[in-house]
Description:
Mean pLDDT: 93
CATH architecture: Alpha-Beta Complex
Structural class: alpha+beta
Radius of gyration: 16 Å
Strand content: 25-35%
Bound molecules: nickel (II) ion
Number of domains: 1
Oligomer: single chain
Distance between the termini: 19 Å
Helix content: 10-25%
Number of helices: 3
Amino acid sequence: MTLLKIARMGQPVLLKxxxxxxxxxxxxxxxxxxxxxxxxxDAVGVGLAAPQVYEGKRAIIFKSPRERGGEDGADTDFSPxxxxxxxxxxxxxxxxxxxxxxxxxxxxxxxxxxRYSHIVYRGYLPNGQAVERExxxxxxxxxxxxxxxxxxxxxxMRMTDLSLLSFxxxxxxxxxxxxxxxxxxxxxxxx
Length: 191
Ligand code: NI
């Protein structure tokens, strides 16, 4: 496995629509996903999309671990580390929730982004198996964030209140202001 270079905001690859993967079971895709996992874990992220490592292909990895969501969350709030090829989602309800996001392509910055709080997503595992899952809360958020990367969308482009954008170094002071605006959230790392 290889640690890959992560594209940062400004690199054109992050603004392009990624290509559908014809064969999810190919050796190339397996190697790309293995390298993405190593790269994400090294960067201490919870999600990564192929365009973030300069590969314009529709592949993402993500996780929504129980240790960051508390013990009383629903099962759909959580996901083990998952690699998905050609992922898609649709909202289950129109409800949007404002929550904190970061991105490995925008290091050092956190912002509050509205996302659907309940979605269904589909895609293919690296073994070719089709999957369909329901996701809520942070699990739904990370999947929407990663699928956005496949369509050239970065989280600030989804923000509706740019005053809710901060350098991580300023978060302590910022939270005094921002928690008034963003209900009950702590800041999460993301991909
Ligand atoms: Ni990201």
